[in-house]
Amino acid sequence: MEEDALPAPPPPSERLLTSIGIGLPELETFLAVVNEGSFSQAARRLNLSQPAVTARVQKLEQVLDIRLLNRTTRRIEPTSAGARLALEAGQALRGLQRLVAQMLVESGKARSRVTVAATPMVAALLLPSVLQRFHAQHPDMAVVLRDLRHFDALESVDRGECDLAVLALDEPLPRFRFEVLMDDEVVALAPAGHALATRGSITLAELASHPVMILEQYVGILAQIEQACTAQGLHFAPSGAAANLQTILGMVDAGAGLAVLPRVMAARSRSEPRHCLEIEGVMLRRRYGILTLKERTLSMAARNFGEFLRGEWILPTKLPHATG
Fold it and tell me: Which residues form the HTH lysR-type domain (predicted)?
């Protein structure tokens, strides 16, 4: 049997420069000599010895088998071949230098930037003052805040589009790490002047007898209330649901009924006096914290922001009643 034929070598134009002994040191040194017009000046510019500069240029001439420089007593001048090489190599190296410089700048910006996903209510109500304090203490770092719905926030962290997320999480998720920053009580919110506005708490029976609005993403909270009501022989069904906190608060202020909300949300953005009521017979909590992907190492910027959140996001687990 005939032996398998060896592949033909690539044409000279496709060979790697390093395979024939030409690398960036030789080209950079040659260009320095051409630009300076002197081996000694090029040596000082490159912080090399003059023999090292001479050796690199000689190596380049030997590999190419052509004279690149004319050496006179006054100045070094490129030959016609040397001028062609200096033109092409200079353009290539300048382009490479610009690209490397741009990438270093981008890398530096990336190291000092953290991208944070947050659900709309967290982004609007809980993070603004935190971000203001962070920027005051770390003016050289940038926080890019992305306002996303809960599932989209999880996806953005999973895909690496965001370094971390600040949101509420009811149940652990296998791929993510969740560090609780605040464990908040869920309460019933009544408008000023409501019959319950003088009370400190409300029973499940009373809650079930009133129109109650809830945020549509609070599936877990709704299930807990329904289960607790069923255990007492009560039927509970919300009279309305909305995706936006301001919509719920507007309906409360208009007298459309009660709302079930975390106390920290109920106490914010009050255009009208409102009153928080503890819900008897069921323990309802909403946990807010930092969510990261287990398999990903956080950047220094993300770690710094996380440490700041732990130390500076001081949110009590139980706020005072939101009375007018």
Answer: 22-79
